[in-house]
What does this fold into?
Amino acid sequence: MHRAAGRRKSLPDEPSGPDAERASLSHIDPETTRPGSRSESPQQPQRIDESLRLLHHHPGYLRIQADAFIQPDDDSPVMIAAQAVAEAVPGFRSWSLRPKTGSVVVEYDPGTLDADDLLNRIAKSAGLRGVEKSISSTKNRQELVSTFLDTVQGVNQVVSELTGNKADLRELVPLALVATSIVSFVVNDDRGRLPHWSSALYRSYRVFMQWHRREVRTRESAGRQAEESGGSSDKSRNRR
It folds into this structure.
């Protein structure tokens, strides 16, 4: 028997060095993940017989509420899933939870993100059955303006009846501003939160002229006609 001299040669099917390290890594089960790694899928929330309620909305701001959001655990799958899907949407800015009430304020970029799409994503990921919009949030701008105008007209009618149809808000509001201007002028430096007298007086003038545009234009037109008729009569007299 002869003793083998030197190192044993590597067999062709047994790579060594860097190739051996890469080969050993390639045999690792791809499904095996470390605890806490990003590839580990979070626990999916169960379906909840409750809607995500939209309490308030204006562009860039959402306030939502759900009973499932009240005093959630640190590892609550409902809250984790809802916040995670919101943060993953482009245009998301912030998520602020009030645990006692279960309401969440979500701020977003209205130019990038659609509010309805964001709401549907949050409700679906949290296991809620859908989005419920409150009555106040479904009113559009036109309905709000119409309601405000109806209220003002009602108040104006009451004021007109109380004054015997001699005055209404078009006269009383400028008059109140004039009174504010006088008080501000008298107390001067001690006026506190009262506006400066000149500012209140100017606003009184602007409000009065704005609310009496028709009467002002009628008087101006009558004045111009009187001037024109007076000028023409003078010319005719000079010719004689």
